[in-house]
Amino acid sequence: MSRAILPMSEVRYGPHTARITVPFSRSCCLSTPAGALLTESSLTTTPTDTHPLSRRASRLAHRVATGGWALKQRLPKWARSRAAARTGMVLVALAALNITAHLFDLDAKIVIPLGAALLAAAAWASGLRSRALGVHRDHARHGLRVALWCAGITAAVLAIALLIPQTAQFFHDNRYADASDVAMAALILIPLTTVIPEELAFRGVLDGALTEHLGERGAYIVGALAFGAWHVLTTGAMTSGNTGLATLLGTGPLAQVVSILGVVAATSVAGLGFIWLRRRTGSLLAPMGMHWALNGLAAIATRIATHPPF
Fold it and tell me: What is the DSSP string of 137-163?
């Protein structure tokens, strides 16, 4: 089947430009220099002619940019199979890492960062590159700027919550009685053993694999649910010692089930937000900043609520 090459419409991806190749079968394929990865959120169209075929090419490119169906439609069968296999292996690897870190007599602070690093290395070897993993240097500055904004906004919200007695009670936690423990947790343990490994594994490797396999909409849904499920085994540690939650939910088996469901729901919603930040900036630094703010600044807020300095 012959195809008409239309130079009147182009797709821009940062510094890269791709031409639209429009076959008469109402689908399109995209080619870019230097193997640039094109995803739905990174595409915008610039029509340069009023020719009817040019307008048709622009409409097709807009569908690619907003829905992703044309990109997936043009993937050959072997590429779809490889993407599905990669996604399955990443999900299995994350489940195995979570079980190994929390159900065996191993130090999760070592197992999870090491496992995330090995997962990222395997993803790179399988073909996912820096843009797909969210670590390309072109997006680092914007990601860092958004991360700082996220930390500042979160700090303001936590400060307001601490001033309201009804919300301050949920920050009462005996795990952070010592100020040195809080500093160690907020500045070292949380960034190195939680934020960086989880963002690299979920918003980096998993999101890259899911986007190639399912498109952006599927990556949002599956990625958020997977992140919520990741926290099932740590729910006890997250809620133990919190007097506000114990007062609200109690301590029986039903309370444990409710707390697990609540943590999974909350972390799934947080996962959606982290994915959105990664999409908007193209960098893992933005969700890392927000993730650290929710965990690290919350630990500091817990210390302040439990042992007020004034």
Answer: GGGHHHHHHHHHHHHHHHHHHHHHHHH
Token readout for 179 is 């100020």
In which order are the strands placed within the sheet that holds 3-13? 29-31, 16-23, 3-13, 44-47
For residue range 166-212, list pLDDT tens digits in order. Answer: 888 878 777 777 888 899 999 999 999 999 999 999 999 999 999 98
118 residue type, one letter: L
Q: Residue count of the chain, please give it.
A: 310
Dist CA 68 CA 61 (whole Å)? 10
Q: Is 13 helix (H, G, I), strand (E, B) or coil?
A: strand
Q: Which residue has the tokens 């952006």?
A: 216
In angstroms, the CA 95 to CA 160 distance is: 37
- How far, in Å, are 116, 130, 199 from residue 204 at the CA level? 10, 9, 6
Q: How many other C-beta atoms lie within 10 A of the C-beta of residue 150? A: 21
The rounded distance, in Å, linking the Cα atoms of 290 and 114 is 22
Q: Which residues of the chain have pLDDT under 70?
A: 1-75, 78, 236-252, 310
Query: No. of H helices and E strands in the chain?
Result: 16, 4
